Amino acid sequence: AHDNSSEDCTVCPDGKYSTAAVAASCTDCVVGQYGDASVDTDVTTHCVLCPDGKYQADAAQVDCDDCGGGKYLTSSSASDHDAAGDCKDCESGEYSTAAATAACTACAAGKFRNSEAADNAEGTACTACADGEYQTETGQTSCTLCLAGKYGKDAVAKSIASHCDDCVAGKVSGTAAGACTDCLKGTYAANATSTSCDTCASGRHATSTASTSCEECIPGKFSQAGAGECSDCEAGRFQVSKGKGSCETCSVGRFSAEEGSTACTDCEPGRAQVASGQAACEPCSPGTFAAAPGSP
User: Fold this and answer.
1) Residue 296 has what pLDDT?
2) Which of 13, 65, 152, 197 stands the most exposed, by the fewest C-beta atoms within 10 Å?
């Protein structure tokens, strides 16, 4: 006869359980759970939900599988722990280096990430804001650009808005600049936070880069707009005033021999000049004379 003593009954293995007094088989722990070896198999609590960061796609198992790096899983339902697809990619702005992660870590302020499944360390998973950009919040997908007229200051962290500092007068910048640019010769920026350089007007000049203003040409010189230097009036021409864009022509009977002249000189007696804009007077030919200074 069949002996019904306890020696003929087999203990349910881990991953299965039975609560019935008379049972022909054990019940599998369902997918999404595992059999806890520390709990007897005669109670339903032997089957335990896979912990966050893990899943189990098969029944009657004694452990769960890890979600890979760059993924996370958190849920109190076995149906959310029963497949590898339950492991979610880290969202943009986050990363995870370890397997079996319940939550991903936000990129630090001053950094960003705009793609998913970041399974490497923050130094490579998250990207530091570029020069001329900053980010004050954690877990962001982009950085904020420094405005035109400002630049990203190396000495100030990219995690604070004051990373963007004003360009000083004489320098300019566009959006997201890592440095301000000097105004070229012949141009200037009078104010801080300028976005473009202004051109020196005719009769004025800026001899150096990063100028904050233009200077007037002195008498005897002139300039066109955008000049880095003023030019001498050529011989036969003059300029008596400062800040002029052109020179005047010496009239008939007068001359200027030197470049950069501020006035013309009358032809001396015995010499004459019938043309304007000349550098010298001509001697009278035999049989003629010029008694008065400045004779044509």
Assistant:
1) 60
2) 13
